[in-house]
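At this stage, I wrote out one protein's amino acid sequence and its backbone structure tokens, and that material follows here:
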Amino acid sequence: MPETEPWEYSLYIPNDPRAVTVCRRTVRLILTMHGLIRLTDTAELLATELVSNAVLHTKGPAALRLRWRSGVLRIGAWDADPGPPEPPSKLDDLVNAEEGRGLALIRACADMWGWQPLARNGNRGKYVWCEIAAA
């Protein structure tokens, strides 16, 4: 499949820290199979941070979504908490921090990021996403 054709994958995960590793390895496999190996390291980091936040800061299930369209990879994580994510700190303020760097790393490594509340079939939550361009 050429890397110009759009595609999308979703992986639903339990609220379990081990799911972060499953997501990271899934991202590597998907990007490799689509010939996008050059995006793998950054995409793995971004997906890991998004899924870690979803698993560590909420109590319900979560999902990872990868979407490729027009040379842009969108990585997103859904979780069951409708509250907004904490605003990212500056990386300089987090040099020695043990935690709290997730969204700061996403802001530093992604071309764009954001979040939106979601409600579907009576379930509420949020979707936090970021994008990286292939160019």
Notes: The chain has a mean pLDDT of 88. The first strand starts at residue 7 and ends at 13. The beta strands are 7-13, 62-69, 72-79, 112-120, 123-133.
